[in-house]
Amino acid sequence: MTADENLVKENLDTLIKRLITKEEEATMTDLDKLILKLARQFPGDAGIFAPIIFNYMRLKKGEAFFIGANEPHAYIRGEILECMACSDNVVRAGLTPKLKDVDTLVKMLTYKSTLPEVTKGEKIDANCRLYVPPVEDFAIELIEVAAGSSYFLPDVRSPSVLLTLEGSGQLQQNHNVKAMDISFGKAAFMSANTTAQVVADDSSGVKIVRALSNVHL
């Protein structure tokens, strides 16, 4: 990240030429393909070397992993749901048109070398799957309700945010609270120590996620 630009260019050119040859010979690995993809998106960027020292992960639907504070990461393709603790900064060093602050990043990184633990969460019941990271800041509940059915959200000792991922329906509480229609992209706030009912429309099921403080530790 701090090397001379000419040195970076020289080594990038060598790497890319070798990968293009492998591409023509149809002998590329997944890592090779990723590096070449980044080279074409961000020509000349030192961050093209990053996949060589990072864990290159391909997650399937429903899989998750935890990233600790000050750990570098990048999303390459697809859609994910990210829940993060309170943070007042995002520090970038490459593969971006945004501001790069290499010096700050180098100072703040942990430099731990580990393999992330991929989890599919814990099945709580037929409708709910729980994802618990090793920190107190947050946990995630993924809730799926079949068409025409309902699901009771129990009270927890934490405020929570509900986000609709698929389908449509209603969030219902007691008679003094107006029911809220939900559909893709709609979010709702739920106070601590309160309950709610997720009611799916007859025409479609509904999938929502509830983010809350990690009351499970």
What does this molecule look like?
There is one protein chain. By secondary structure, the chain is α+β, with helices and mostly antiparallel strands. Helix content is 20%, strand content 23%. It has two domains: 5-108, no CATH class; 122-212, Jelly Rolls. It has helices spanning 5-24, 30-41, 50-53, 102-108; strands spanning 122-123, 128-131, 139-145, 150-153, 160-172, 180-183, 187-190, 196-200, 206-212. Strands 1, 2, 3, 4, 5, 6, 7, 8 and 9 form a nine-stranded antiparallel beta sheet that branches. Helix 1 (5-24) packs across helix 2. The two termini are 38 Å apart.
Keywords:
about 220 residues, 4 helices, alpha+beta, about 20% helix, elongated, 2 domains, Jelly Rolls, nine-stranded antiparallel sheet
Helix content: 10-25%
Calculate Rg over CA atoms: 22 Å
The overall pLDDT, averaged over residues, is: 93
pLDDT < 50 runs, ≥5 residues:
none
**Structural class given helices, strands, pairing?**
alpha+beta
Largest sheet, in brief, is:
9 strands, antiparallel
Strand percentage, roughly? 15-25%
State the distance separating the first and last CA atoms. Answer: 38 Å
Shape: elongated
Count of helical regions: 4
> Strand-and-helix sequence, N→C?
HHHHEEEEEEEEE
Q: How many beta-strand runs?
A: 9
Q: Give the count of structural domains.
A: 2
